[in-house]
Design goal:
The protein is α/β, with parallel strands linked by helices and 176 residues long. 23% of the residues lie in helices and 24% in strands. The protein is built from four helices and twelve strands. The strands form three sheets. A seven-stranded mixed β-sheet has the order 3-2-1-6-9-11-12. It has a three-stranded mixed β-sheet with strand order 8-7-10, with no helix packed on it. It has a two-stranded antiparallel ribbon with strand order 4-5. α2 packs parallel to α3. The longest helix has 21 residues. It is globular, with a radius of gyration of 15 Å.
Length: 176
C-alpha cells in the first residue's frame, strides 16, 4: 500500500520532496559539521536525492553510496563523487559506486530510503533488511534521516526485533 502511495505522487509532489530533502538535510549536515554523508540512488518512486547530492558537494561535504556485497546479503558504503559517478551493477537496475568501501564509523549522517515509517521511527524498507543491518554499525551520534512521503508516515506498522529505528524523517512538508 505504501509503495502504491509513493508511485501515485504527482511530479510536483516529487519535486517538492526532493527540494525539501536537499534544503533540510544540507542544513542538518552543515550544523553537525559533517564530512561524509551517506545517500542512496533512488529506485522506482523513492524520493530523489540528486539535488541533495549536488547541494552537499557544493558545500564541500563528501558522499558515500551503498553497494551490495557480491552475494547480495548486505550493503557497504563507498565514497563516491556523486550520482553521475555511479555505475550499473551487473544484471540489475541498481547503480552503485566503485572503489574501496569506507568504515561505517566514518559516516557522519545517513539518508535512508523508506517506503513507510511509523510514528515511533520504525522504518519499512523494501524487505531485504540491508539498512537494518547497516544502521547499528554507525556511531550512535550519527543522524539517521528517513526520506519518506508524508502520506507514508503511519501511527503504527508491524515491527520485528531487528528493525532499526530512525530518528528523523524528511517528507515533502519538512524535517521532523
Amino acid at each position: 500500500a505504501a509503495d502504491g502511495t509513493l508511485r501515485n505522487r504527482t511530479p510536483q509532489q516529487r519535486r517538492q520532496h526532493a527540494a525539501a530533502l536537499a534544503r533540510h538535510v544540507v542544513q542538518l549536515a552543515q550544523s553537525a559539521q559533517c564530512k561524509l554523508v551517506a545517500l542512496y540512488r533512488p529506485v522506482g518512486a523513492e524520493p530523489d536525492t540528486r539535488d541533495l547530492a549536488n547541494a552537499l558537494l557544493v558545500c564541500g561535504i563528501a558522499l558515500a553510496y551503498p553497494r551490495l556485497w557480491p552475494d547480495g546479503s548486505a550493503i557497504q558504503l563507498v565514497p563516491c563523487a556523486g550520482p553521475s559517478a555511479l555505475q550499473a551493477r551487473p544484471r540489475s537496475r541498481l547503480l552503485e559506486p566503485v572503489g574501496a568501501a569506507c568504515q561505517p564509523g566514518e559516516v557522519d549522517l545517513v539518508v535512508v530510503p523508506t517506503v513507510a515509517l511509523s510514528a515511533d521511527g520504525v522504518r519499512l524498507g523494501r524487505g531485504g533488511g540491508h539498512y537494518d543491518r547497516l544502521l547499528p554499525q554507525l556511531r550512535a551520534d550519527v543522524p539517521r534521516v528517513a526520506a519518506v512521503a508524508a502520506a507514508c508516515v503511519w501511527a503504527w506498522q508491524p515491527q520485528e526485533a531487528h528493525d532499526a529505528r530512525i530518528g528523523l524523517a524528511c517528507t515533502e512538508a519538512g524535517l521532523f
